[in-house]
Amino acid sequence: MEILIVLGLLVVGYLIGSAMERSHYKSIAQREQAMKDILIFDTKLAAGEPGSHSHLVQGNVVVSVDYFKRFVAGLRMLIGGRLGTYETLLDRGRREAVLRMKEAAKAAGANHIFNVRFETASISKGAEQTLGSVEVLVYGTAVTR
Question: Is residue 33 pLDDT above 90, yes or no?
Answer without folding.
Answer: yes
